[in-house]
Write a structure and sequence with these properties.
The chain contains 22 helices and 20 strands. It has about 525 residues and is of the alpha/beta class. Strands 1, 2, 3, 4, 14, 16, 17, 18 and 19 form a nine-stranded mixed β-sheet that branches. A six-stranded mixed β-sheet has the order 7-6-5-10-11-12, with helices on both faces. A three-stranded parallel β-sheet has the order 13-20-15. Helix 21 links the parallel strand 17 and strand 18. Helix 15 crosses helix 19. The radius of gyration is 23 Å and the shape is globular.
Length: about 525
């Protein structure tokens, strides 16, 4: 859906939501309506297990002596977290099936596939797996540790010589059962195994800037990330057995009090009732700490719309079809300027703060890449974002980010010449200790987050930050300051011309744009 007349619309701004009167020539694009959820989630999962795609059933793959690794995504997926996490239901159904087969409890381990992310806290694991499973299998639940050399094993090499090293217990199990949420096209398939259960030396080849600059991250057929990951997966396909359970969610981002407060005005004929004006104004006046508290506890009303189980590649093909159906939005052409509202949600700031590197990763990485095929922004175009761009860091979760920001990013490095820094951060004992024994991201993750924006860096001429509070943060990132959206739009027109085409992508909920002919 798009509009082509003067209209007020909501736009996210950090932990606030504003209402802005967009110029009349702005086209506004919205996420698709949420697809209807399945009626019975557990029953849908059972049916998927009983009718696997390209694989034998679990009862034909396992016996009472089998060792099983049940692996699952961490808190970075979905974003925000679900109010009622479907992985809890999937874990219950799978464990019921294993009990029926006779698999011994001591032969089962549940592994949170964190990759180089921080470890999940007990309360987070209880939410993902459900309190019942967490209580019954608590001593069998672990977070993957990418620095635990004794519990990693090399399974093979790709044709380019990349070693594939993953979690030892998973690799040596008779079967890996992976409970996956494919939130966007980037998720799922071999990425779950290679990245979620991998070590640094296995993750860096597919997360290097040289690879990430190749195609949109959300377009698996064009993405360098997916090309390398699939090469790695196929290099070890005969060394491990994987039974995937891929779950697709709708895009019902809204829940609770915010269900009506945050919804686009387009859903109410662009009317802004008095109660919404009063509520939005009152929220803006609340202390920042209170708004951050609410944001960190917000759960979305995402629901299961489909589940596919079996072979990791064949089941994933079906998953992507449903993801495309839920998330794709046709866009009529490429635009000179695209505006995004940017809330303080990122996959790497759950329970934390949005730091400048994460803002860079979100804007030039995730938001720029939210397309398949041709990008909706012209090469050399401008992105305008609405966000306070605060210079805040969480020393518990992001210790290496702080050092990377102050010691490396301040020198305006070439993104393709950071291999020496990679090695320093990889071998930093303090970072490793905080990652392994605390809840810090891996020391090298600061570089990974920065690399994530490489495609945007190469194709976007300017990022204008409307309402930025920290000039220093913008200088460090190479972004431009604007006091508000009016000033940002005026500056963009001066730079690109007064007839520049402008689009506003009204997110969240997220969507994947596809440039082409819009059907009337």
């Amino acid at each position: 859906m798009w509009v082509f007349f003067e209209v007020k619309e909501i736009i996210f701004y950090g932990d606030d939501v504003l209402v802005y009167d967009f110029p009349e020539e702005t086209k506004i694009f919205y996420a698709p309506k949420p697809l209807p959820p399945v009626e019975d989630e557990k029953e849908a999962i059972r049916k998927a297990l009983d009718s696997p795609i390209g694989s034998r059933k679990l009862e034909h793959l396992l016996n009472e002596r089998s060792r099983v690794a049940i692996c699952f995504d961490d808190v970075s997926v979905p974003l925000p977290q679900m109010k009622d996490d479907v992985r809890a239901k999937a874990a219950e159904v799978v464990l019921e099936k294993l009990r029926e087969i006779g698999v011994k409890r001591e032969n089962i381990r549940l592994i949170c596939a964190t990759g180089l992310h921080r470890k999940c806290k007990p309360q987070e694991l209880a939410h993902i797996l459900g309190k019942r499973v967490f209580k019954e299998y608590g001593d069998r639940i672990i977070n993957h540790d990418a620095d635990d050399r004794e519990n990693l094993v090399v399974l093979g090499k790709t044709g380019d010589g990349y070693e594939v090293e993953i979690n030892r217990f998973a690799a040596e199990s008779d079967l890996i059962i992976y409970l996956n949420i494919t939130f966007v096209p980037m998720n799922g398939g071999w990425k779950s195994i290679i990245v979620g259960l991998g070590s640094f030396k296995t993750i860096i080849p597919n997360h290097s800037p040289e690879v990430l600059k190749e195609g949109s991250l959300m377009d698996p057929k064009a993405s360098g990330l997916h090309r390398v990951i699939w090469e790695m997966g196929r290099a070890i396909k005969d060394k491990i057995r994987v039974f995937t359970v891929e779950m697709v969610l709708n895009d019902n981002f809204y829940s609770g009090f915010f269900e009506k407060l945050w919804r686009p005005l387009a859903e109410n004929n662009y009317n802004l009732p008095l109660w919404r004006r009063v509520a939005l104004s009152a929220i803006r006046k609340m202390p920042d700490s209170l708004k951050a508290f609410v944001r960190n506890r917000y759960k979305a009303n995402y629901r299961l719309i489909g589940v596919y189980a079996g072979d990791i590649e064949k089941a994933h093909e079906e998953t992507l079809k449903l993801v495309k159906k839920q998330l794709t939005v046709p866009v009529d052409k490429q635009y000179d300027v695209i505006i995004f509202g940017v809330p303080n949600f990122t996959p790497y700031s759950v329970g934390s703060v949005m730091n400048p590197i994460l803002l860079h990763s979100l804007v030039l990485g995730y938001l720029y890449n939210m397309h398949s095929g041709k990008p909706p922004l012209k090469k050399g175009g401008i992105i305008i974002i609405s966000n306070p761009a605060l210079e805040k860091f969480d020393p518990q979760q992001h210790p290496s980010y702080i050092d990377f920001y102050e010691q490396v990013l301040s020198k305006k490095p070439d993104i393709f010449k950071l291999k020496t820094v990679e090695k320093m951060y990889l071998n930093n004992k303090e970072y490793s200790e905080k990652y392994r024994k605390g809840f810090a991201y891996h020391g090298t993750h600061a570089l990974m987050a920065y690399y994530w924006g490489v495609l945007g860096l190469l194709n976007v001429s300017r990022v204008m930050v409307a309402g930025a509070k920290s000039r220093r943060a913008l200088e460090m990132l190479g972004f431009d300051y604007a006091k508000d959206l009016d000033e940002a739009i005026d500056a963009s027109r001066k730079y690109l011309g007064k007839n520049s085409s402008i689009a506003y992508f009204c997110m969240p909920p997220i969507f994947i744009s596809e440039v082409g002919q819009i059907k009337k």
